[in-house]
Amino acid sequence: MNKRENDDILIGKIKYTNCWPMFHHFKPDALSQKASLVTEVPSLLNRRMLEGSLDISPVSSFAFGYGAEQFVLLPELSVSSNGPVNSILLFSRKPPEQIRNGVIALTNTSATSVNLLKIIMEKAYGGSPTYWDSEPDLDLMMANSDAALLIGDNAISASWHNREFIVTDLGEVWKRWTGYGMTFAVWAVQKSFAENRPELLAEVSRAFHDSKRRSLSDLSSLVEEACREIGGTRDYWRHYFNNLCYDFTEQMQNGLALYFSYAYEMGLLKHKVHIHVWNENMLTRVKE
Predict the structure, then answer these.
(1) What does each C-alpha distance from 48 to 30, 43, 111 come to in angstroms?
(2) Does residue 94 carry a pLDDT above 90?
(3) 0.70 exceeded by the pTM?
(4) CA distance 56 to 51
């Protein structure tokens, strides 16, 4: 059900730094219709997209899979990695394959990484751990657990201060195991919005792509902002942004399709997922 109080375009924005390039030069006020940004952690944006109270938003890949029939995806926009992602991290006292039947604390801020971990623990390591959900506090999570999963800026900060735990990058494990990159977030659009307002959607899509292009062509302002807000060094953040993949290539789509296939096989998703990517050819067809 669409729970809206007015006709403004509502666009979600993930708080984490991994989405900054798409938003750094994205100006809602420059759009031809009034738009507002709703800045939240992935889990809350996921929920709002699924309930229909946002028009467009980056969402966790798993949330897209859950509600795929009500969404289309914007082309060439994602948060992906073709190896280490540096912000989806499992902290443990032993290597993960040695605790495949242990107790793992899960962050409560994103379903994609949680289910990626479950797929890896069961399919790659042949395990069956016990899981519990927690606020993203590493000390609290590890007090009674064999491992803890953190994502985003919480994972980055914890990795800087870690002196005790083995750190396993789930993007690196996925790439080594499957040969594919892993897509953690995609840009979802309510299918009804895409059908009813295609010209406006084309405008929003171009604005996101322009922000991505400008951000990646000169990372200096992003790097300075990350140092100021989160800490760390310029070299760290320059490597971090350069290492991530912000496109949504066929190879990345194939890796995501494999992720959805495993999720369906394990009962994490109740239906098979078809990935529908919007493009401006749809706008041409509407005009005809």
Answers:
(1) 24, 9, 14
(2) yes
(3) yes
(4) 12
